[in-house]
Amino acid sequence: MSGFIVVLILLLSVLRLPAERINQEGRILGPLPVVMSPILFNTSNADAVVSAMQIFPVTNPWNEDISQRPVLTNSDAMIAQITSDLTGGNPASSLRKVHVNYEMNFVLVPDNQPRAPIDFFNYPDESDLDGGTSPYGLYPIPANLPVETWPLGTGNQTLQQWQTNDDGSDRHAIMVAPGGGFIWETWETTLTGTNWEASNGAKFDLNTNGLRPAGWTSGDAAGLPMFPALVRFDETERGMVEHACRVTVKRTLYNNYIYPATHYASSSGNTNANLPCMGQRLRLKASFVIPANWSKEEKAFLSGLKKYGAIVADNGSVFGISTAPDDRWPNGENCFDDLSSIDVTNFEVVQTTGANEGPRSPGMPMANAGLDQTVPVGAPVTLQGAVTFSNAPPVIQWKLYSGPGMVTFGNAALTNTTATFSAPGVYTLELSAADGVHATAYDAAVFTATSVIKVSIALAGTNVNINWTGGSPPYVVQEMDISLAGSWSNIVTTNANSATIPITNTAVFFRVMGQ
User: Fold this and answer.
1) How far is Cα 414 from Cα 417, in angstroms, rounded to an integer?
2) CA-to-CA distance for 146 and 39, rounded, in angstroms?
3) What number of other Cβ atoms are within 10 A of residue 488's Cβ?
């Protein structure tokens, strides 16, 4: 017998894929689907697109984690004023409760959606004409443009009928181009004959934190966009509303608005300092216990109000929070009925951050999860993450984002630690750095865990004993003639961790394959 050669190879990949797109909630967004034709909001195709969108930068006020922001010194007085205005002083009034308004819908359009003229009949001087000539804008209006409250709030009317039914309501409409990252929003929107008209039109760039010009209104009285504020079907099904909501109150402060609002809408008599401004941010108190038996959708809604809050965006007759009028909501317009038991006093008013404060201030930490790797199962692997910062040291955390098994970290609070993977497969580990001021920094790395089989060989008389550890049964012992250097041949299949092979006069390679 000439001898035996056992080749054991473990490939450690140094591949680094393009950086993952990770949103403010730490959710990996994945590739953005290309919109080829208009897609209505209440479809699974729309879900696939919006769930992969970064709707404004992670530093944007709509995406700002305000769960740790300090409370305004006059928060209680402001909440009392909001309550009094809504109820007229009647403590038994249901108007002091949360109202979920099924109203704002949207359509996703391709970047090359043909433009149509739209007549801005009230505020052309505060409208983005986008290539049009006043009072006309040129907007990417598809034939299936939905108008506010359709389909949940429009009875048996078809979309085409509702487009032309000028019922005197707000009739907001929203067009979204995910590819380029733009939204167009209008109100009092009606199709008259073959021509579109609206009171006002606003365009927002989803790639920036830019605002409307100071003093300009939008579809919202505060000059804010509506699309990033909507409670959507896709996010509640995932279990978390990942942004601030828009909320209406009865009265707002005269001649005042705060970042990110650009416009006020109130009478000159509204000078009480306890009236909220347009742009004021409210938060559901951390002490509010979300009942365990409430629906997944309601829990997602309230979790978002605790973390991201709600921004005062308009005046209204109720403490109303906007939700998409999606006909897929479980129980339709009764989906969020439990929220109507929540009193306004369960909210507090927080100190807001300005254009260059909070997450928009200098010094945001950065995280790097290191290289993607191929690693062995069951053995500690060194993680080589890195976090850079220039302000207070951030809280560092590794976590298992996805994978077929468990991951045990040496110390998940260190950038450089170890991870042990319990089973073969592809794992994504996410590294985060949170300093309590800026948006949490995230990065992820992919680890392909494989079962490495370690083989030992010993001669025993006229046989060769092959023993191994690692892998999963069934195992296949293979051989290949060294002189022929041909293909591998199966010689034994077993669930055991050993095999005895008769010696021949041929020099061969052996290898063991597992699952």
Assistant:
1) 6
2) 10
3) 13
The span from the CA of 355 to the CA of 211, in Å, is 10
Both tokens of 230, joined, read 């909507």
How high is the pLDDT of residue 506?
74
Take residue 365 and report the two structure tokens written for it. 């930490």
- Cβ atoms < 10 Å from Cβ of 80: 14
Task: Please name which of 134, 472, 433, 76 lies closest in space to residue 282, comparing C-alpha atoms.
Answer: 76
- What's the rounded Cα separation, in Å, for the pair 435 and 442? 12
Report d(CA 253, CA 499) in Å as an integer: 84
Supply the pLDDT for residue 19: 66
Given phi > 0 = left and psi -120 to 50 = alpha, else beta, which region is 223? left
Looking from the CA of 34 toward its CB, the CA atoms found within 13 Å total 2
DSSP E strands: which ranges in 67-130? 98-102, 107-108, 116-120
CA–chain centroid gap for 361, Å, is 22
Measuring CA to CA, how many Å separate 369 from each of 19, 20, 358, 435, 454? 10, 11, 24, 17, 29
Rg (CA), the chain: 30
Q: Are 320 and 170 in contact (CB under 8 A)?
A: no
Q: What is the predicted pLDDT for the residue at 14?
A: 40
pLDDT digits (tens, 9 = 90+) for 309-365: 999 999 999 999 999 999 999 999 999 999 999 999 999 999 999 999 999 999 999
Give all strands (DSSP E) within 262-317, no chain letters.
281-284, 310-315
Write the CA distances from 188 to 101, 170, 204, 255, 425, integer angstroms: 17, 5, 19, 24, 54
The predicted pLDDT at position 485 comes to 65
| Side chain identity, residue 319 | F
Position 215, amino acid: G
Which structure tokens are listed for 55? Answer: 């709707």
247 φ, ψ to 5°?
Answer: -135, 145
pLDDT of residue 3: 35
Question: Which residue shows structure tokens 């279990």?
Answer: 239
Per the confidence metrics, is the pTM higher than 0.85? yes
Q: Can you tell me the distance from the alpha carbon of 512 to that of 456, in angstroms, rounded to the nearest whole number? A: 11
332: which DSSP letter?
G
Question: What is the C-alpha separation between 123 and 216, in angstroms, rounded?
Answer: 9
Please give the structure tokens belonging to residue 377.
């199962």
DSSP β-bridge partners for residue 479: 489, 510
Q: What is the pLDDT of residue 484?
A: 67
Which of left, alpha, beta for 407 (phi over 0: left; psi -120 to 50: alpha)?
A: beta
H/E element holding 233?
A: helix 233-238
Q: Which residue stretches of the chain have pLDDT < 70?
A: 1-19, 484-485
Euclidean distance between CA atoms 383 and 409, whole angstroms: 9
